[in-house]
Amino acid sequence: MNLTDYASSKGGTAKLGCPVLTTVAAAANCSAATLYMVARGHKSVGAALALRIAAATDQLVAAADLRPDLYAHAVAALPARGEAATESCAVSKRALRTRLGLSSDAHLAKVLQLPVEQVAAWPEKQGVPALPQVLQLLGVQKEQPAALAAPNDPDANRVIQVQVA
To answer: pTM for the whole thing?
Structure first.
């Protein structure tokens, strides 16, 4: 979904001054005018802003939708949404850096918000770890384990509502 479709689905107009774009812009730490220009195709976003917009829209506008040149290939190499993620991704660290246009592990670490030492320890030609930051960067949502899901109330159906006349 692109930004125009997202704004329309939330009741906005996707025009300058649209409250939906203003809300997304505030959450993505950019200006509403920038999002308007991106929505209209007059401006492209960087890798970090694409991730922030994806996070601000609950992944409805994916980073791959905003920057297919950076993310589409990496997403195609990963398991489809809903499939279980493996211990490591099918994308190598070198391929990920190249796709994002980054020149060093320090830049990749900054985008992933990880310590430089951790990213530098990953092998160049093997798959990167399937960490939440990496999966978010690639637009993959890992399913939440059942143990961490919302608790199920066994007495929810036993509650009786009494109406007073």
So the answer is: 0.49
